[in-house]
Design brief:
Layout lengths: L4 E6 L2 H11 L3 E8 L3 E7 L8 E6 L3 H12 L5 E4 L3 H10 L4 E8 L2 E7 L5 E6 L3
Parallel strand pairs: 1-4, 5-8
Antiparallel strand pairs: 2-3, 3-4, 6-7, 7-8
């Protein structure tokens, strides 16, 4: 068994597509219309195009707002992405205007940082020494 797909709820799929592809560097994998305005929109890492897909899922369900607002209020990331070097990725993203709620922080062998994805979520990036 392996993880094939996971998702994040987003306020605006077009805005999320731009942020996740143009800013974070993911690559669009699937973009299929669902209903009148929603899409089955997934992105993948360019390093693993056949790897785990991230679904940029519309946040239309009434429970989503309460759930995400509570996580953001408490500073809890909805998802975590692995990077080779958190400090370098922090500098790159910060230079692109990404707002971080936690600057790089070393916790034992792991370094993390947390940013706002502009679509209603906090996302953590993490790296371990090789």
């Amino acid at each position: 068994m392996k993880i094939h797909l996971t998702g994040v709820f987003v306020d605006d799929q077009a805005k999320a597509e731009h942020f996740y592809t143009e800013t974070l560097g993911f690559v669009k994998k699937h973009d299929v219309p669902v209903g009148e305005k929603d899409r089955w929109l997934t992105v993948v890492s360019p390093e693993e195009p056949a790897g785990t897909e991230l679904l940029l899922e519309p946040a239309g369900h009434p429970a989503v707002k309460t759930y995400r607002d509570a996580l953001v209020k408490d500073g809890i990331p909805l998802a975590q992405f692995a990077v080779d070097d958190v400090r370098a990725e922090y500098e790159r993203l910060h230079g692109l205007g990404v707002r971080f709620t936690q600057e790089p922080l070393q916790m034992g062998p792991v370094t993390t940082a947390v940013f706002d994805d502009t679509c209603g979520n906090l996302i953590q990036i993490a790296s371990r020494p090789q």
